[in-house]
Input
Amino acid sequence: MLFLWTLALFAAINTVTSVGATSTPKTYVGYKDDWILLPCVSLEPAASESLNIFWRDKDDKVVLDVINGKTDKIDPFFTNRVVSFPDEYKKGNFSIVIRQLKFLDTGPYDCEVPQMSFQIRLFLRVVDRIPTPCANATKKANATGKPVLAVTEGANGVGRYTQSVTMLSICLAIFFLFYNSSI
Ligand SMILES: *[C@@H]1O[C@H](CO)[C@@H](O)[C@H](O)[C@H]1NC(C)=O
Ligand SMILES: *[C@@H]1O[C@H](CO)[C@@H](O)[C@H](O)[C@H]1NC(C)=O
Ligand SMILES: *[C@@H]1O[C@H](CO)[C@@H](O)[C@H](O)[C@H]1NC(C)=O
Output
């Protein structure tokens, strides 16, 4: 029973990942309570220092308003959780970091710079860090002196998630081994 449940869980995770990889807009996957960089980069540098930048979420909440190059407004839902990089604006880099990710942050995000007629949409998905069966499998592997698994931190959320899905597959194999040997 437990084994079937685990299989179903991993099948679900892998399905979700492959859908995310092929759909437009581009999907970024972050972990709950972790942070993620949401890129918004124009090919051309900004013509002016006094840019207006508008970031919006799925509910049209103000993720970030930059007016004349200065942070103007952030919705209370995102207060103290959104960081932008003013030094990067002139290079056409309007990316933000969202910290302390919540499941509710999942959804589409729009980044718009009207003066440059520049607008992009991306999709953020916030997921749990590691399912319990895998954490348990990791502990068991440790106890028997087998190599310890760890989720490595990549350059971005997607990289990390891809790696962790690979890790999850390895975890599943280990979980399976121990499940069988414990019968
Ligand atoms: C944009 O700025 C962020 C923060 O400094 C940085 O991490 C990212 O690599 C930059 N992106 C580009 C394309 O320069
Ligand atoms: C994982 O271990 C915890 C205790 O460390 C236990 O409560 C939980 O039931 C275990 N889960 C599975 C799927 O074995
Ligand atoms: C496994 O053991 C190492 C030390 O040998 C420890 O640092 C690590 O936290 C352990 N991992 C788990 C999941 O117990």
Summary: Helices lie at 2-22, 86-89, 132-143, 157-181. Residues 14-23, 150-157 have pLDDT under 50 and may be disordered.
